[in-house]
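Q: Got a minute? One more chain.
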Amino acid sequence: MVGYRRNKWTAEEEGALLAGICKHGAGKWLNILEDPEFRPQLLYRSNIDLKDKWRNMKIKEKSMTQTLDSASISISPCKDFAFSK
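A: Always. Here it is, folded:
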C-alpha cells in the first residue's frame, strides 16, 4: 500500500489483541476490531495486522519455550483474562 507506514505495536494494542482473542477466538479478527471494548486500542490496525501479529506472537512463544531445557510450559493467551459470555 502506497504511503502506509508500519508502526510498532504498543503494549496496549497487544493486550487488546490478546483479550480480543480470549473473548472472540483466534481468527475472528473483524469481530475483535468491531468490539467496542477493543476498538479504541486497535483503531489504526486492520484485520490483517491482527492476524500477522498473532502469528508472530505464537512464533515468538514457540521459540521461547524451545530454548528452555526440557521444561514443558504452555502459555495460554487467556490465562490473565476473565470474560463472561
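A: The domain at 11-66 is CATH 1.10.10 (Arc Repressor Mutant, subunit A).
Q: Perfect, thanks.
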